[in-house]
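Whether sequence alone determines local backbone shape is best considered at the level of individual chains. In the encoding step, the backbone of a single protein was reduced to a row of integers, each denoting a local shape. For completeness, the protein is quoted in full, as a sequence line and a line of structure tokens.
***
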Amino acid sequence: MTPRPITEILPNNLVGEAMPPRVSIDALEQRDNWRTMWRLLTHDWLLAVLSVGLWLAALAYQFLPQMPFDGATDAPGFSQWQAQARALSNGAFGFLQDLGLFDIVHALWVRLLLAGLLGILVLRLLDRGLRLLQARRSQSLALFYDENRLRVTDHAPSLHVLAERLRYKHYRVALDPTSPEQPQWLNADRAPRAELISLLMHMGLLMAALGMFANTVWGWTDQYIPISTEQPVRLSNQRGDLQLITANEPPNTVLVQIGKQAPQTLVLPPVADTSTIAPPMQSAMTLQPFTLSVAEITPEFHVSATTADKTPLPLIVSSYASAQNEAVLTFRSGETERSLAIGPEPAKLSLLISPNERNVPAAGLGRVQVFALPSGRVITEANISPNMTIEGINLSFAPTYGAVLAARYQPGNPWVWLGGVIAVLAWLGCWRYPMQRIVVRLHAPDWTEFYASGRRVAQDVRDIST
């Protein structure tokens, strides 16, 4: 760069003053649109905005009930999720749903933020890597990168004095080797320590962003998984079916097993779903991608019916389900009674079964009403006992408990947490040791230009040049 006369740089009243003039942007940078675009794309504020946006999305994903993985195809689960979301949002359900806060992994704005963050991180890593390589090349020490001209004065100390002052401030200093007695330029920077810390921070952020990308693409959440001891449940991405072994109320515990893994005990917390387990399924790390929690423990009746000669009678629980010799009636939250019909076709009897009030042993097992079909005449109403005989039909009632579980699979979680910890620690290092670069040029007759970049570098320029 050809130096301009000082009279073209500063107003007449600032020429020769010892105090720093107003900060001005170098003319080359004002004309270079590509450099301006590069600086905008790699600016700290853009990275901060994208990171904060995704952090808020992660908070919404963690604390707001998310739409079931199967969407509206799982009618009971979708209905329960909608009721929970409406109660929690307190009238703002429509607005929050339009923002996609109840379905974060499919929200377009979240994916755009994530894609933007990944792109910006790659650019910034490239920028830091190139700067680190350039800092190792002696022929590039006197070149300008993104430095702004901070000061022009004809009262600056000699470059040797400036070098000593910068070394005292722990800068790495290089002087013009072509004229050791009267150097024409000086370069000082915080490389390689500051650049390496910055690289580490960006690598941690990139690791966390890739983990979020994995959660968005391959992760899933299902907050409504009804399960009983009779029928295991197939979960996506898991090695083996989820089997309920026992459920008890009280003490509000559920024993489950996934595939051939050791059984795990889950506890229903007093308020909401805060207790989780993380079976060692996808990773040997402490932070597991799969979590399981208890949403509800449900009373059940296993009902069977036989004739006097022990011939099983078919039981019909729903017009959409085929008849079976044993029926499992599950009473979920809000359900106080269930019905079934006793075959063979056409059914002759209908039972309306109500469990006892929870935690009230005196109430017995519950009540049963028996109706004649098709008239609907009430035949009898009685307390439920394990074995009953009504209209010549032997009925067996076996009380037990099922459960409603909530599951979440986040394969990128180990990388999110590990990358986040690395990024935070490195960010603290960047705050303590920011990347700063100062280039000083000496021009005849004895006037000096100071160019610099980096956080808090202007104060250092004022300190050494006064």
Remarks:
- The CA atoms of residues 436 and 457 lie 6 Å apart.
- The first helix runs from residue 6 to 9.
- Confidence is low (pLDDT under 50) at residues 1-29, 271-287.
- The chain has eleven helices and 18 strands.
